[in-house]
Amino acid sequence: MKFVSLGAALAAAIALGACGPADANSQPQSGGGAMIMDVGFNALLRDPATPFLGAEDADVTIIGYMDYNCPYCKMMIPELEGLMASDSKVRVLYKEWPIFGEVSENASRIALAAGYQGKYHEVHKAFMGAPGRIDSDATARRLATEAGADMAQLEADLTAHRSEIDAVIRRNTVEASALALRGTPAFVVNGVLIPGGLKKEQFEALIGRIRSGQPLY
User: Fold this and answer.
1) Which of 36, 30, 29 is nearest to 14 (CA)?
2) Are 136 and 101 a contacting pair, CB within 8 Å?
3) What digits encode the pLDDT tens for the residues 149-159?
4) d(Cα 142, Cα 40) in Å, to the nearest integer?
5) Residue 169 and residue 108 in contact, taking contact as beta carbons nearer than 8 Å
């Protein structure tokens, strides 16, 4: 996936209702132009294991499905950070969705394991800020070390919490399948699915429409 125009993103937007939990067997139903998925926005928010940045009392929540070896995901980080810096009522939930192979999967596990020592965001930022691909588990561990993670504790948490960590990744994968996502990055903004990346100004325009109740498409 790459950056898309706001108009194209809204043309492809999927409005999500507050219905039941994500199900891998959910199928899109066409009608009225937009595709409506049987996946609730509230269900996507419900997982307490999903890391987030920004205000707890935010009126706009952006859920991002990302892979550390996706170049467009890396490009999104300054856009999202700039958005949160300029808008105190926005928060971002990060859904680890490693689709670029085993190294990406292990990088996601390392980031989630770092959360048990309060270092998820530092490791996440280090992984997203790495130039080029994270080409090996050794590189991921080096980046985590440089981000300030206690590697002895991280390795212990990887072992002790492996089932919980893998469950988070599986849940995210089920959600992505139910949303019919085709690649990373993808975002859900207050129930509106954006299949691609947006610039900060485009997020601001979308959020303005959501807050004012204007039609999105």
Assistant:
1) 36
2) no
3) 999 999 999 99
4) 38
5) yes
